[in-house]
Amino acid sequence: MDDNTPVIIGVGEASERIGAPGYAAHSPVELAALAARAALDDAGAAAAIGPRIEVIAAIRQFEVSGPRAVAPFGKSNNFPRSVARRIGADPQRAILEPVGGQGPQHLVNEFAHAIGRGEMRLALICGSEAISTVRDLATKGETRDWSEEVEGQLEDRGYGVDGLVDAVIAEHGARTPIQVYAMYENARRARRGLSREAYLREMGDLFAPFTVVASGNPHAMSQSVFTPEALATVTPQNRVVADPFPRRMVARDQANQGAAVLIASVGMARELGVPEDRWVYLHGGADVAERSPFQRNDLSAYPAAVLAAKQALDGAGVGVGDIAAFDLYSCFPIAVFSVRDELGLAADDPRPLTVTGGLPFFGGAGNNYSMHAIASLVRALRAKPGSYGLLGANGGFLSKYSVGVYATKPREWRPFDSRGLQAAIDGWPAPAPAPDSALDGTVETYTIDYGREAPHGVLVCRTDAGERFMAMTSPEHPAVLEAMRAGDPLGARVSCALDARGRRVAETIALAG
């Protein structure tokens, strides 16, 4: 085995639940450092590893994921170096990764290539969230001082949020992931020809096995097992947050979790004395970016993610039938459905599609969820030597997808290149936008948001010529929202008017059938 072959040699996790024995209200830096120490311990050479780390890369917390974001208790000015000093490391490079749930797998892919080229020998990737603690303390009127000033180099890669969602969608009332993903979900329901009730049950069938996995995960924020019926039944405890999502169908952001991955060259692993039964190899991978939502012809699918998964499998020389363990990013059902269906995985395939329990049940630890998935996958593969695992990590609004195929089976490093896939994705045709004069059309997809404000509807429509436009409901025309709530808006005919800001407001709606 060539000395420059990259291998994962250690993984670690840390978590705490409010009110549990030993709860310490750890800061994000402390959670990430606890996970990093666990990764060093997992490699079996903790004392020797810290000083040898050359690069530490950190995932952004939600609190620092935008230029206007405010960390209520303060933050480190150099998160990776704050973690470094807690584990006895002084890396040459410190990196802060852009926003997106694809970040952990993207960094593994990036660093594997750098190690393969001989540019680095030992790197730590880490991240964390303390969202639940922040909310709990704020509710109690308590404060903490989590600010830190650490000297040293930092490669801040920026937020990476430009172009994730189109202005026209946001202007019509879909600004958050839950609103945009709900529109994707209803587009898939339209393609499948399912009623609201049937689609709720399909989402419940998908996620019920995830709850079983979460129930056995000591780091999961929810360890309750739910039947498909319980997930799909709307109750005061499981209210609809955005049509078609009940609360239990969406990522659980109230989490206190940290995770870390230690990746090294084979040569370094040998120098450190890390036993070979701890090594896990990256056999294939891919990194792609989808175009923004309004520019996609089919809002019911995620073809860029599917292409990435297929490239990773092809690079590993295996098929989907050879995979023993999966973790498909599960912020919402559509993120799983889109990849599962196109990879040919049957709904009743006995292999779980998560190794953690998924974002709604394990916890949606901000941009860092997939670091936990990598850690769980590594442990699962070590327990079944020779088996393969596939991890798909999603970011944005089904916007960015990174894939890794892993195994304990030794394999010489083979670089992979996603530029050809990306060029193909960038070349896909976009739907024509409707001119301002086009005010009538058919509903392609929609959502009704039931968030903290009054319920409101957002619609994606097509003119008879196939041009796409956005529309929204307004209090001036309450009958439109009432009809959307009472019946099925998919395929309905709408007539709109332009408001003072140039937005289309639905004045009438005629439900199909």
| Cα-to-Cα separation, first versus last residue | 65 Å
Give the biggest beta sheet: 10 strands, mixed
Q: What sort of overall outline do the alpha carbons produce when their principal axes are compared?
A: globular
Strand order in the largest sheet: 5-3-2-4-8-1-9-12-11-10
Mean pLDDT: 97
Strand content: 15-25%
Report the radius of gyration as a whole number of Å: 23 Å
Given the helix and strand composition, which structural class is it? alpha+beta
The count of β-strands is 17
Helix content: 25-40%
Low-confidence stretches: none
Number of helices: 15
Description:
The protein is an alpha+beta fold. It has 15 helices and 17 strands. The strands form three sheets. The protein has a ten-stranded mixed sheet with strand order 5-3-2-4-8-1-9-12-11-10, with helices on both faces. Strands 15-14-13-16-17 form a five-stranded antiparallel sheet. A two-stranded antiparallel sheet has the order 6-7. The longest helix is centred in the middle third of the chain and has 20 residues. It is globular, with a radius of gyration of 23 Å.
